[in-house]
Amino acid sequence: MEDKETLSARLTEQLREADGLVHRLTENTEDLASRLRNKQEEIARINGHIDAMQRDKNQIQVRGSGHHGLGMRVGEINKEERRERERIGEECEE
Predict the structure, then answer these.
(1) CA torsion angle 27 32 36 38 (round to 10)
(2) Which residues are within 8 A (CB) of 72 and not within 5 positions of it... i.e. 6 or more apart?
(3) How many distinct helices (H) and strands (E) make up the chain?
(4) Residue ranges per structural domain of the chain
(5) d(CA 12, CA 77)
(6) Residue 11 and residue 21: Cα distance in Å, rounded?
(7) CB under 8 Å to 42, separation ≥6 — which residues?
(8) Whole-angstrom distance, CA of residue 51 vs CA of residue 72
(9) Is the pLDDT of residue 72 over 50?
(10) DSSP state letters, 42-83
């Protein structure tokens, strides 16, 4: 049977190892949480892009029944809105 000093030293070393493992797990969990947030933000941007495209498609279809339907809708799209959609589209392709 081990003496108290040896047993105490061994337990202290095991506690240090356990503390190191907890620290690494905490870091890994924080890293995964950060990655998850980034992916959720990316998905939200993509969904916004899809929603905007669907709204455009629906308005083009509604106005498309007239003589200049498509031209009218394209002319109505705000330039900044178009730039934002193109930027998001490029991010999605990457």
Answers:
(1) 60
(2) 63, 66
(3) 3, 0
(4) 4-93
(5) 68
(6) 15
(7) 91
(8) 20
(9) no
(10) HHHHHHHHHHHHHHHHHHHHHHTTSTTHHHHHHHHS-HHHHH
List all residues 6 or more positions away from 69 whose beta carbon is below 8 Å from its beta carbon: 60, 62, 63
Q: Cβ neighbours of residue 10 under 8 Å, at least 6 residues apart?
A: 2
Q: What is the pTM of this model?
A: 0.52
Weakest-pLDDT range from 36-40, 41-45, 69-73: 69-73
Token readout for 30 is 């924080």
Helix 4-63 to helix 69-76 angle (10° resolution) is 130
Predicted confidence at residue 56, as pLDDT, reads 80
